[in-house]
Write a structure and sequence with these properties.
Helix content: 40-55%
Distance between the termini: 69 Å
Strand content: 15-25%
Oligomer: single chain
Order of helices and strands: EHEHEHHEHEHHEHHEEHEH
CATH architecture of the largest domain: 2-Layer Sandwich
CATH topology of the largest domain: Alpha-Beta Plaits
Number of domains: 2
CATH superfamily of the largest domain: Reverse transcriptase/Diguanylate cyclase domain
Radius of gyration: 22 Å
């Protein structure tokens, strides 16, 4: 039986670092998988290559993409798409490791812990974790109409985010958003218009929040958002961003109705540790205040 060929991109500026990793990859190539790899020393060259070439895994030097400016990492993450990223670096401390995971890497390996077994285990775990995550998300988490997370998927991720926030001792903002007058849109203009309005609401939220934030449709006309690591004082500002996004949507799309969103916010504090149900209730109460003000 022929072995599957895995294509890796190694981005490492140090010749000695390159040699170490290449030697370890050579040990495992042809045993379980055939591994082919390309080595690049510079971040910008790697970004250019990713525009035209697909890889199964990226092994990148974390400092190369976050210093002096983190915009390089954002571009790397965007170009990588669904490709898992394994990060390497000099430091062995919780801050660096947490930063790598927060930025979207599957794992972080300090050079002091390089060994063929450790590296190969990290590679296999990264590939398997990513594969399972993508399959799980596709099968269970997608709302068919909006392609956002459905209620089940969103609440699963909310529970995970609460656990992570407790470990990191960092809070986050939680939003509940209602599409106003959906029943009226359905009754007046038909269910096709109602579906279009729901898709429009999803687009507004995607435009209002960051790529790493988690957005779901949790009910017929109800949406929810986890703004990861967003401080409590940004709550009112982000509400305004959502309303501005809806305004821009109405300017760009000529529908027989105006798309309107109501927004409620709550803050998850690790010290107070509200449950998912309590966060939903708090955001819903805040949303109700905004709805009353619109009447």
């Amino acid at each position: 039986m022929s072995l599957k060929t895995l294509h890796f991109l190694l981005v490492e500026p140090s010749p000695s670092g390159q040699s170490e990793i290449e030697e370890m990859l050579s040990i495992f190539s042809n045993e379980v998988h055939k591994i082919e790899w390309i080595v690049i020393e510079e971040a910008l060259a790697a970004l250019e290559l990713l525009k035209t070439t697909h890889f199964d895994l990226l092994i990148v030097s974390l400092p190369l993409f976050i210093y002096p400016r983190r915009t390089l990492w954002k571009e790397l993450h965007s170009l990588a798409g669904a490709t898992p990223i394994l990060t390497i670096g000099e430091q062995r401390d919780e801050k660096t490791s947490t930063l790598a995971i927060h930025l979207g890497a599957e794992d972080y390996i300090p050079k002091s812990e390089y060994s063929p077994t450790h590296l190969w285990r990290a590679i296999l775990h990264a590939l398997e974790r990513h594969k399972m995550h993508e399959k799980f998300k596709e099968l269970l988490f997608a709302d068919e109409l909006t392609r956002l997370y459905n209620r089940r998927g969103f609440l699963t991720l909310l529970t995970q985010q609460i656990s992570l926030s407790k470990r990191l001792n960092k809070g986050f903002l939680f939003f509940q958003v209602d599409l106003d007058e959906l029943k009226k849109i359905n009754d007046t203009h038909g269910h096709f218009a109602g579906d279009s309005a729901l898709k429009g609401a999803a687009l507004c939220l995607k435009n209002a929040f960051r790529k790493q934030d988690i957005i779901g449709r949790i009910g017929g006309d109800e949406f929810a958002v986890i703004a990861i690591n967003a401080p409590e004082e940004e709550g009112d500002y982000l509400k305004k961003v959502v309303h501005e996004s809806a305004h821009q949507y109405n300017l760009a799309h000529k529908h027989p109705y105006l798309l309107s969103l109501s927004v409620g916010a709550a803050f998850y504090s690790p010290q107070e540790d509200p449950s998912p149900e309590e966060l939903l209730a708090q955001a819903d109460a805040d949303l109700y205040v905004e709805k009353k003000q619109k009447k």
